[in-house]
Amino acid sequence: MSVLVTRPGKDGEALCQMLKRQGIDSFHHPLIQLEQGAGYTTLPDDIQHCDIIIAVSQHAVHWAQHCLHNHHINFPQHTTYFAIGEKTARTLEKHIKKEVISPLISDSEHLLDLPALKLVKNKRILILRGNGGRELIYQALQQRGAQVHYNEIYHRKPCPVDDLTIWSHWKTSGIKHIVITSGEQLDHLLKQTPNQYLDWLKQLNLYIPSQRIKQQAEKVGFSHIINTGSAANPILLDYLSGKFITGQQHDRQ
């Protein structure tokens, strides 16, 4: 079997190395690249005036830490911290040296179900994110009476697929599985895929981390979707290496 890994940066590279150690061939082809975001320059001021900070991804944590380090500033200790996903929470904890609250299932809906985010009237909340996304969190917390602001600490830029022969190469290389870790990646992949390869693409085993992306994939015609419930590399590896049996996969979809 061969796996196409589309997640960007070191996380994608690390997953390919993990697959290699399991004897599984993989191709790393990032669909987006990450750059400094519009909120990078304002973050030192933004974090001083909030009661709650929510990090939506590890990328948000990494870019925020990079910014604060350059300004010789630490994350404030008076703030309550939340993260979507356990790995994002653990990454943030390394920098703030205090507990980060996260839901068991890594999505916006389960984050909003956390008791600590139920009573937030008049609380000042900052959401660390990339360019776009997580509007449900913003809207729900505003409805609960909070003062909510975004900081777009990093920017996601689509990577064009310039070599059109790559599709033929992937197909003849026996790729049967593809890892997509965001709805944006899925949308960009479909836009880049030549028409003659769309049917082939949609027959691959598609590994995605959330119910939201699963529904998006179903709408565009993917037939074999495995919702891993997490974008953490060890969990993706467990699914790709067959440590989760079919019944367990269906339970998490």
Task: Provide the fold topology.
Elements: E1 2-5, H1 9-21, E2 25-28, E3 32-36, H2 43-46, E4 52-55, H3 58-70, E5 80-83, H4 86-96, E6 100-101, H5 108-112, E7 124-129, H6 135-143, E8 147-152, E9 154-158, H7 166-172, E10 175-179, H8 183-192, H9 195-202, E11 205-208, H10 211-219, E12 224-227, H11 233-240, H12 246-252
Parallel strand pairs: 1-2, 1-10, 4-5, 4-7, 5-6, 7-8, 10-11, 11-12
Antiparallel strand pairs: 3-9
InterPro entries: 4pyrrol_syn_uPrphyn_synt_sf, 4pyrrol_synth_uPrphyn_synth, UROS/Hem4
Family: Belongs to the uroporphyrinogen-III synthase family.
Enzyme class: lyase
Structure, explained:
The chain is an alpha/beta fold. It has two domains: 2-31 and 160-252, Rossmann fold (3-Layer(aba) Sandwich); 35-156, Rossmann fold. The chain is built from twelve helices and twelve strands. It has helices at residues 9-21, 43-46, 58-70, 86-96, 108-112, 135-143, 166-172, 183-192, 195-202, 211-219, 233-240, 246-252, and strands spanning 2-5, 25-28, 32-36, 52-55, 80-83, 100-101, 124-129, 147-152, 154-158, 175-179, 205-208, 224-227. Helix 1 runs parallel beside helix 11 (233-240) and helix 3 runs parallel beside helix 4. The radius of gyration is 19 Å and the shape is elongated. Mean pLDDT is 90; it is low at 245-253.
